């Protein structure tokens, strides 16, 4: 079994956690007997922008080719490039042009991770956030008028299409169907955002008819975030628009201790385009270059990628190694109350796997 | 001292918590020697809609007249009227037409309230959310196209004006200026929502120049919600757009135990129009009619209203009474682990005040 993977480390702590992700992947290839062919790309980072005035070469699709998956770090270095330019010219462009319309993110309280919520134990919090990843509030339609005057204004469309909404709901209902509790929660705000969100609700209601074995409910996003803190045990699969999914998939991991360990898959379910796996966290300029970033978000993303590639055993092996390390306070990084460096933590996990 | 106030109870638990708010206000008038003239309005509720096909009479502005303030419960009864119709025809219309452009909401961990965050004590969490309340993501511009076909789509504009953004930022910077820590946090999402949110950031940066004594920072909304859970102690005043402020002002109170006690002021700072005070919670159809709702959101809103009217001592008296009752587990409502009814809780607070 040989898989081509594209590797893009990005900026900031992306450059520090990526080598740890690779270290663990390589340990997995040795232990589970498969091969990964890595192709590293030196674009989609702000140094590239500084040299070329753009985040990626014009022929980036050709450069990337047809890998089995893309393994991605984190992008953004606002001292060189404003975030909206660096992100729209890299990660957000990849998601859209590769039609990775599912952004899948687990929220799981792991043994050994100090939980900021009082009295919660591993097992109490265990759900998935399914985020629409190509349209909605992340739109490129809009602009500015009366610039520089008192009448200055900016407009930006939120755009939801039936195709875009239905396909993410279908994915979410099917995921819920495979879970023991079979419960889907929809994030809405139809009381306030009164044009797009009632449409979202309508499509949820229509789609639910095709999945009579799945229970479902909906919460407005404001009270939904409140319930992540107050009653995290009630969630099984949570589906949301691009923005709501973005918020919930940072808040969820925070409720389980840190966003430093959370992974994500940007998935093109049809497989016409490569899917992309990356930690939920960003490039974190404030802690970059200090060898203190938690590499587990990157390493757990490696496990998600192997799962996606069909290397289920290797994926499970990585997660067992992660759990083993998390249980030992001395092996944890700073965000989890430990003092291990990024490299030491990555090495412990690779060792646990070998 | 005599004040005219308009009273609108609304739907669901609004009808149950409003009498408790009034009970406590009346106790305050007796103890502090001022007079409130109440005018109750039987519109802005879904029963009114059922009879008249609209939420408020055409001449609602005349009906309400020129009260010193509006005391408001909660609106919405989705079995009769979809939420987006009932809310846009009542609360959201009042906010906009009375130009109540500030929505001010405290986030404070009170003694006696069980905190869902591990290890946090009263004093650790104490900040304000300042929410833009008239524009932004809550817009009425947009629509649906290709209805009923595969190409169906919905569009909705987010609209931010320089006037709208600058005036809320000014209010927030001035509030921060009065606080001991003098720190303003701006909620943004300029890396993803790349047209409107970079504009918001720009205006924050420009406005900050006029307040050199106020420190400020910004967080993207995703990591900001994470930090409400992980580091609530770092916040002093948090300013956000209509949607981000809505989310943060439910999440914040949840982090302090319950949204059942949180109040809000919908304020027209110039005083050309009446301001409106209401609990943060909604009409809660699931628990309505059971006499179990927490009346403290309504009662704390009464205190905010008195503060606004200049009855500072009475406002402080109500808050002391609330704190006295919260410290006694038996006097608390169900959401706070007690078993007191809505009425019993309201009565305890009125008694503590007298
Ligand atoms: C009921 C709803 C429209 C309202 C809002 O979103 O503004 C509520 O959540 C609030 O926070 O006052
Ligand atoms: C960096 C940013 C544009 C991105 C997003 O908002 O999608 C990130 O927060 C994420 O969740 O992957």
TrEMBL record, chains A, B:
The keyword GTP-binding does not apply. Keywords: Lyase, Manganese, Metal-binding, NAD, Oxidoreductase. Its cofactor is K(+); Mn(2+); Mg(2+). It comes from the Bacteria. Its EC number is 1.1.1.83, 1.1.1.93, 4.1.1.73. GO terms for molecular function: tartrate dehydrogenase activity. Pathway: Carbohydrate acid metabolism; tartrate degradation; 2-hydroxy-3-oxosuccinate from meso-tartrate: step 1/1; Carbohydrate acid metabolism; tartrate degradation; D-glycerate from L-tartrate: step 1/1; Carbohydrate acid metabolism; tartrate degradation; 2-hydroxy-3-oxosuccinate from L-tartrate: step 1/1. SMART domains: Iso_dh (SM01329). InterPro entries: ICDH/IPMDH, IsoCit/isopropylmalate_DH_CS, IsoPropMal-DH-like_dom, TTC_DH. The keyword Metal-binding applies. Its main location: cytoplasm. Coiled coil: none annotated. Has multiple catalytic activities. Apart from catalyzing the oxidation of (+)-tartrate to oxaloglycolate, also converts meso-tartrate to D-glycerate and catalyzes the oxidative decarboxylation of D-malate to pyruvate. Belongs to the isocitrate and isopropylmalate dehydrogenases family. This is D-malate dehydrogenase [decarboxylating]. It comes from Rhizobium brockwellii.
